[in-house]
């Protein structure tokens, strides 16, 4: 990992952590329908807007496995950024550290993976944004699953510092 990439990753993680700590200025209600593919239910898909100069942004989603076999979210891609990576933010000895989830996120049968703001929770980081993520301007992301394969979802966007009503679930 080169220094420029490391800086973008650290800034993205810090941005995610700061936004998670910010008190919401507005709460939006989720009207995005769930996407069902195979035994997976994908819902509560959202991202916060970013400042104009941001090089990274973050996205959140909830995935429920209704089947009898595990599946794994192994990656993502989107036309709004050069890359999309799975990460988790952890607080260690008073400092915030962003860590990539190299093996993805397992969704066991009957369970759900909740990618949401806050330390200890996974999220999708959009690295090398082609422009700012704007509130009210949804964008497409293809989630890559080990078994279910690629699934296109639409990320709804909320204002900087805002959280949808479902963000804590």
Summarize it.
With 169 residues, the chain is mainly beta.
Give the SSE map.
Layout: H1 3-21, E1 27-28, E2 35-37, E3 40-48, E4 56-65, E5 71-77, E6 81-92, E7 95-100, E8 105-107, E9 112-115, E10 122-129, E11 139-145, E12 149-158, E13 163-164
Parallel strand pairs: 1-13, 3-12
Antiparallel strand pairs: 2-3, 3-4, 4-9, 4-10, 5-8, 5-11, 6-7, 6-10, 11-12
List keywords for this structure.
eleven-stranded mixed sheet, mainly beta, Immunoglobulin-like, 1 helix, disordered N terminus, two-stranded parallel sheet, 169 residues
What is the domain tally? 1
CATH hierarchy class name: Mainly Beta
Radius of gyration: 15 Å
Helix count, per DSSP?
A: 1
Which consecutive residue ranges, at least 5 long each, have pLDDT under 50? 3-11, 13-29
Number of strand elements: 13
- CATH fold annotation: Immunoglobulin-like
Structural description of this entry:
- The protein is built from 1 helix and 13 strands.
- With 169 residues, it is mainly beta.
- The strands form 2 sheets. Strands 2, 3, 4, 5, 6, 7, 8, 9, 10, 11 and 12 form an 11-stranded mixed β-sheet that branches.
- Strand 6 and strand 7 form a beta hairpin.
- The longest helix has 19 residues.
- The N terminus is likely disordered.
């Amino acid at each position: 990992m080169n220094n420029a990439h490391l800086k973008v990753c650290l800034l993205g993680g810090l941005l995610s952590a700061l936004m998670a700590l910010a008190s919401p200025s507005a709460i939006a209600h989720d009207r995005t329908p769930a996407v069902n593919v195979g035994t997976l239910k994908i819902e509560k898909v959202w991202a916060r807007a970013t400042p104009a100069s941001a090089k990274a942004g973050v996205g959140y989603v909830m995935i429920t496995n209704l089947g009898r076999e595990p599946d794994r979210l192994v990656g993502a891609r989107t036309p709004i950024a050069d890359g999309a990576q799975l990460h988790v933010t952890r607080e260690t000895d008073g400092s915030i550290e962003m860590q990539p989830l190299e093996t993805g996120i397992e969704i066991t049968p009957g369970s759900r993976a909740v990618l949401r703001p806050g330390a200890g929770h996974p999220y999708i980081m959009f690295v090398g944004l082609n422009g700012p993520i704007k509130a009210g301007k949804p964008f497409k992301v293809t989630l890559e699953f080990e078994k279910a394969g690629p699934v296109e979802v639409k990320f709804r966007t909320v204002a900087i510092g805002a959280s949808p009503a479902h963000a804590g679930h």
